[in-house]
Automatic annotation (TrEMBL):
One of its GO terms (molecular function) is phosphorelay response regulator activity. It comes from the Bacteria. It comes from Chryseobacterium populi. InterPro entries: CheY-like_superfamily (IPR011006), LytR-like (IPR046947), LytTR_DNA-bd_dom (IPR007492), Sig_transdc_resp-reg_receiver (IPR001789). Residues 10-121 form the Response regulatory domain. This is Response regulator of the LytR/AlgR family. SUPFAM superfamilies: CheY-like. Pfam families: LytTR (PF04397), Response_reg (PF00072). PANTHER family: STAGE 0 SPORULATION PROTEIN A HOMOLOG (PTHR37299:SF1), TRANSCRIPTIONAL REGULATOR-RELATED (PTHR37299).
Amino acid sequence: MTHSASKKYNCIIVEDEPIAAEILENFVSQDKELNLVGKCADAVYASSLLSIHDVDLIFLDLNLPVIKGFDFLRKIKNPPFVIVTTAYHQYALEGYELDIVDYLMKPIPYSRFLTATGKFKHLMEVEDALLEIADRDHIFISSGKKQIRITLQDIFYIESLREYISIHTKAETFTIKMPISKIEESLNPNLFLRIHKSYIISRSKIEVKSANMIQINGKKLPIGRTYKPLIEF
C-alpha cells in the first residue's frame, strides 16, 4: 500500500456482514485522511493484518465469528484506537478499559460516522503531538507523559541514532524516540538544513563550512554525498 501525502491514518475494517463492511468502506473512502489498508470478516485475519500494517484505527464489529470483538482486542499488545460497530446496545460498558473511541449503532448514519472519526483524529493529534509547532519559534517534544518545550533558536543540530534523535541545544541535549525524518518534516527549511542522513543543522549556527563538512559549536559534522547537491546556504 502506498501512502499518498494526504492520507495520514491507516485503518482496517473487521466486519463479517458484507453489506455493513461495504457501507463502512464507502464512508472511509470519502475521507482523505483515512487510508483503508484491509478489511476482513474475523479476528484471526484481523490479527494478521495488524502484524503486516501499521494500523492506527480499527472499525470493529463485536459480533464476530469464533472470537468475539472484545476478546480479540484484549489479546492485542498496544491495540490501535477502535471504533466499535454493533447492532446491540448492551456492549458499551464492557469496552471502558479498552481504547474505544466511539460506538456506532447499525445501521450507521454517515453523520455519526463523521463524529466518530472526528473524535479519533482529535485523539491521534493529542497522542501524536510529538511535534506541536506553536508560533513557529519553538517545538514541543513528547517525552513519556511530559511535553518539553524547545526554542528553535537554541538548537545547534539534531543527530540521529537509529530510532532515536538527540537535539543538541545551548542548555542541554534531549534524546527522544523519533525518526529524524519526522522532526525534519516539522522544521522550517529556512532555519534548518539536512546535511546528512544523520544530521540536521541550524543554519544560523554554522561556524565553518567546506565542501564536506560543517562546523557547529566546535563540532565538525559531515555532509552526506546524497545531500551535497541539495544544500544551498
